[in-house]
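Researcher: Please predict.
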Amino acid sequence: MSGRTGTGRGRALVGLLLSLAAIAVAVLAAAFIARYANHTQECYRPDGLHQYIECVRRNLSGH
C-alpha cells in the first residue's frame, strides 16, 4: 500500500484549478453586470423594448 500515496493528487489539483477559474469567471461576470447596470440605469423605464434598446446603445457608446 505504500505505492498508493499521492493517488488522486492530480485530480485534486485539476479540481482546485477549475474551482479557481469558476470563481474568476463569476467575479468578472458580476463586475460586468454592475458596470452595465450603472451605465444604463436611466433606461429602466417601462417605455417599451425599442426605446430601452436605443437608450442602452446610447449610454454604452458614450454619446
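Model: Helices lie at 9-39, 49-61.
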